[in-house]
Design goal:
391 residues; alpha/beta; Nucleotidyltransferase, domain 5; 15 helices; globular; binds adenosine-5'-diphosphate
Length: 391
């Protein structure tokens, strides 16, 4: 089946057209600066050159029409559309076919992720309207964590408040963690039972996966919780929020922006939110960058053990996403802190650069350590195939 995967943001729209059987990517790209000046579509066919197509994109509807026109030239029929939805809230334990009802649910839970869900719901509606013959599927990033045990998802807030406002740990990156489990299971021929999946990108989260089920994860009500990220704080004492307002004089929105966009590696390093820049500066002796990297690895190792505890054991860990797949320095930094637990990696294997799943631990390591390039798009496409049937 040929599936068009769409990942819509408020001013951007990423797409990928791929085949579920072969995993072959026919085309992919990103419509950027939608509703702003200087909009364009970056498009790539197969392994070809990236092209930049300058087009006016006043709204998402225009962007989608352009994308379908571009894809006509690829000459591969689209059999169905999969939509990444950031927040499935209290409605989606798994992916679901788009109907009036499920679309309304995506909008109903949007206050939990206002920057994403409204745009995603609008895009789903536009696709149904423009291409009524194509089925659409909602793939929420939270679905994988929906059935975590209650002791993992419940917060110790007054029950009536928490339940009334649907406050709980929803987590994120669920589609990626689910793919990482699948790839790790296949690579180890089923020898992986209790996996700590480490999705370390500009957004970063860990997931404890026992027999394919999410048992706990580090992101919470929103993606702000857990690990230190590119520009997000990760976990801080929640009272910091009141203190910043009462004593610092910041408004709620200013605190929101500070903690989501101006903190994390960016704030600690004073250089960049990108781990490549930080690694380079740290190597050149920048003390703040060295501290930023050390803190990133410290928190990561600490929370890996929290995930292991939630499964009462672990046999495998997998590094994934931009940092996890590419930075041997961060991988080594994290594993070094876990050496006392019997985690041992081979420095040469750790330095190998490859797009394949690979093992970097030594034969005598107590924990199997893997690098797994994630593929959320393929996971989404497989869900579309499951729900809409093979064509
Ligand atoms: P997201 O999808 O959340 O934007 P990615 O998974 O693409 O994030 O990861 C982006 C981050 O990965 C970048 O900010 C950068 O820090 C890191 N990264 C990407 N490539 C490399 C590399 N070769 N070495 C070190 N870090 C890298």
């Amino acid at each position: 089946m040929n599936v068009l995967v769409i990942n819509a943001g408020s001013s951007s729209l990423k797409y990928q057209l791929l085949n579920t059987e072969a995993g072959q990517v026919y085309a992919k790209g990103n419509a950027e600066r939608i509703g702003i000046d200087d909009s364009f579509i970056g498009h790539q066919e197969g392994d070809g050159e990236k092209e930049k197509l300058v087009v006016e994109l006043p709204d998402h509807r225009t962007a989608i029409k352009h994308i379908f026109e571009i894809l006509e030239k690829v000459d591969v029929p689209v059999d169905g559309i999969g939509h990444r939805v950031v927040q499935g809230g209290w409605y989606f334990p798994e992916s679901a076919v788009v109907t009036d009802e499920t679309l309304a649910e995506v909008r109903e839970v949007a206050p939990l992720a206002p920057l994403h869900n409204y745009a995603e719901a609008d895009v789903i509606e536009i696709c149904r309207d423009l291409y009524p013959d194509l089925g659409n599927v909602i793939v929420p990033d939270t679905a994988f964590h929906y059935n975590m045990p209650e002791h993992a998802w419940r917060y110790a807030l007054p029950r009536d408040v928490a339940d009334g406002l649907h406050i709980r740990k929803y987590g994120a990156h669920g589609t990626s963690h689910r793919y990482i489990w699948k790839a790790a299971s296949e690579f180890t021929n089923g020898a992986c039972h209790k996996l700590v999946s480490c999705h370390l990108g500009s957004g970063a989260s860990l997931c404890a996966i026992d027999g394919g089920k999410s048992m706990d994860t580090t992101m919470g009500l929103t993606p702000l919780d857990g690990l230190i990220m590119g520009t997000r704080t990760g976990t801080v004492d929640p009272a910091t929020v009141f203190y910043l307002q009462r004593v610092g004089g910041y408004t709620v929105d200013e605190v929101d922006t500070m903690m989501n966009k101006q903190s994390g590696l960016l704030a600690l390093s004073g250089v960049s939110s990108d781990s490549r820049d930080i690694e380079e500066a740290a190597e050149a002796g920048d003390k703040n960058c060295q501290m930023a990297m050390d803190m990133f690895c410290y928190r990561c190792a600490q929370l890996i053990l929290e995930m292991a505890q939630s499964m009462e054991g672990w046999d495998t860990m997998a590094f994934s996403a931009g940092i996890g797949e590419n930075s041997d320095v961060i991988r080594a930094g994290v594993c070094e802190k876990l050496a006392w637990m019997g985690v041992k990696i081979d420095p040469e294997l750790n330095k190998v650069r490859s797009g394949d799943v690979r093992r970097i631990s030594t034969p005598d390591s107590k924990i199997d350590v893997l690098v797994v390039p994630t593929n959320e798009e393929l996971m989404i496409a497989l869900d579309v195939e499951d729900l809409l049937g093979d064509k």
